Amino acid sequence: MKKLITISFALILSVTAWSQCALTYSFSPSSFTAEDQFTLTIDVTGTPVAGLTDLYLWSWSNAGDAYFNTAWDNSPEDAKLTHVSGNIFTITGSGVVWYQKSPGQLTQMQFLVKTKTGNVQSCDIAPVKFDPIEFIPSKMRVFPAKVGYNDVVSVYFHQDLATILNEQRMTPTKAVIVAYDENDNELTPASVEINLRKENTTTWRASFKPNYSFTGNTPAKFRYRFKGTIVNSNNEVVEVLTDFEEVVLTKLK
Amino acid sequence: MKAKKLFLYILTIGFLITGCRPDAFKEIGDAVKPVESITGQWKLRKVTQSDINAVEKGFPYKTLDITDVLPYQDVTFSLAFSNGAPGSFATGNASGLDLFDFENGTWGVDDINAPSVIYLINNNDSATLTIGSYPNSVNHNTLIISVIKKDEETNKELIRYDYEFVH
């Protein structure tokens, strides 16, 4: 019992510590390829580096460190963040410049904020994906790749690219869509099921229009997955589902 | 004998001169202006959606016919033309499907003699439609217009809708 309390306490402490060092950030533009220039705005409020004005970026990608990750205890001026006001900082860059790799090699990036000597730092951010430069086949995809709430969206299931046995065996029947507003509230109805159209022997599609299929607030994102049936070892037909994929809707004009 | 031959020559030349008169062609009237050919009541026949980024980068999935995804074929589009100038426009359908950001207003073109762009105006809102083809007998009187959707933040062109209308 004592051990359980200790473990629980340690867990609560670590979760609290994590929530106190997580950065708030945004990119402009919000999505970009590894070739595109972006401006990164970081709010360090609530992190260990809050209140400091001389801060530096430490960044890495799937293909290696940023060129300005020279030495942890002596970050160069290229890594220095521009202090805007209060706890807000910015820096401009691009994937190919920062990581010195070709666009095709770069898929995602991460960073943290530190002092020059690295004696104080924030937590790492979760990986940020670059928009693909080349087409990457995947089991589930959306067409067009970037859509708004007022556009027709088509979700595809490519069974030939599935790696989970049940997904490889299933006969796909429906796409299940759940939509959310910008505050992550589920829209009405809670989910929409759309009959799949067979495009070829291994590909199925379902199409819908977010603001036509869902009511309430403006849709900001949706999650989708595919439903199908398989015959189990008892010769019974059972339902199987793929995992959900999430799509953030782009603001279009 | 010589005089007879000479007479025949003169007679032949006389026939040729008097016979070669220009025909009187009928009046063909004023040329049909392209701007007038796009006016009237149209019914939506086909909708195609293109991923502009996929087209530019040569990705395998570029366009999709979405006509039957929603009741697009119920949609009507009318462009009124009066006193030699564009007037009002209206879109209509029974299922609440919005083709543009607003359903009615006035319209204009970039060039009244050879328009390539139609502007739809509703108070402070406007929409730009690119004309893909004027209706004529070759394309079975089909009006093709395109609408490009851009990223609000970056202004990057992302999606193109091609609408085919028939009378």
Detailed description of the structure:
The complex is a heterodimer of chains A (253) and B (167). Chain A has 253 residues and is mainly β. Chain A has helices at residues 2-19, 95-99, 165-169, 210-213; strands at residues 24-28, 37-43, 56-61, 64-65, 82-85, 88-94, 108-114, 128-129, 140-143, 153-158, 171-180, 192-195, 197-200, 203-208, 221-231, 237-241, 245-248. In chain A, strands 11, 12, 15, 16 and 17 form a five-stranded antiparallel sheet that branches. In chain A, strands 1-2-6-5 form a four-stranded antiparallel sheet. In chain A, 27% of the residues are buried. Chain B has 167 residues and is of the alpha+beta class. Helices cover 17% and strands 41% of the residues of chain B. Chain B has helices at residues 2-19, 34-37, 52-57, and strands spanning 40-51, 63-65, 76-82, 85-92, 104-109, 117-122, 125-133, 143-150, 157-166. An eight-stranded antiparallel β-barrel of chain B has the order 1-3-4-5-6-7-8-9. The longest helix of chain B is centred in the N-terminal third of the chain and has 18 residues, at 2-19. The N and C termini of chain B lie far apart (73 Å).
| Rg over alpha carbons of chain B | 27 Å
Quickly give the structural class of chain A.
mainly beta
Roughly how much helix do the residues of chain A carry, as a percent range?
Answer: 10-25%
Relative helix content of chain B = 10-25%
What is the chains' assembly state?
Answer: heterodimer
Quickly give the CATH architecture of the largest domain in chain A. Answer: Sandwich
CATH architectural arrangement of chain B: Beta Barrel
Helix and strand content put the structural class of chain B at alpha+beta
CATH topology of the largest domain in chain A: Immunoglobulin-like
Order of helices and strands of chain A: HEEEEEEHEEEEHEEEEHEEE
Largest sheet composition of chain B: 8 strands, antiparallel, barrel
Number of strands of chain B: 9
- The fraction of residues assigned to DSSP E strands of chain B is 35-45%
N-end to C-end Cα span of chain A: 59 Å
CATH fold label of chain B: Lipocalin
Question: Major β-sheet of chain A, in short?
Answer: 5 strands, antiparallel
Share of β-strand residues of chain A: 35-45%
Strand arrangement within the widest β-sheet of chain B reads 1-3-4-5-6-7-8-9
